Amino acid sequence: MKIKSAVFTVSAPDLATCPPVFRPEFAFIGRSNVGKSSLINLLTEQRQLAMVSNTPGKTKLINFFLINGAWSLVDLPGYGHAHAAKSTREDFQRAIMDYLTQRPTLAGVFVLIDSRHSPQTIDLEFVEWLAANSPAPFALVFTKTDKQSAAATQNNQAQFMRHLPRRSGEPPKQFSTSAKTKHGRTELLDFIAQTLASRRA
Known about the structure:
By secondary structure, this protein is an alpha/beta fold. It is 34% helix and 21% strand.
């Protein structure tokens, strides 16, 4: 797939204020500072399309980016940001849950996992919740692979998969990426293209 255009369209604080449900959407979610914005910029090859910050919890809204005038990438607030006020965290979580369970145009969800770490409880619990509650298919994206050896990434990825509760059917699709080296970009875009094609069939 070739991305010819990518533009920011709107930020929404909750499901009710999201754009009209016209186009397929692919959402990106993960712990704060896992690299969601960097991955969106990598896919679109625009360095400043999504705001990148070293401050965890910077994304506080549901941000929509229109791709090729035909479908959208969606940057969701990160989960698990402990420094936000309790009421703010609760608003984040409600907006995320509503979007993931009720958005009819949600074609797929990419759950980002920091490849440098052994399985984290918060990630495992979120994936389990997503599998049980969201009607949209999801895939796992292990980020920041340039910061360690390929063997270390593969080991942490394998550990994560072993810790996931066994469910019927195929395990979720897995990708490894690096915003610095562009590793994984082609594979993710091919997967999105395949998903879009299957929805049109």
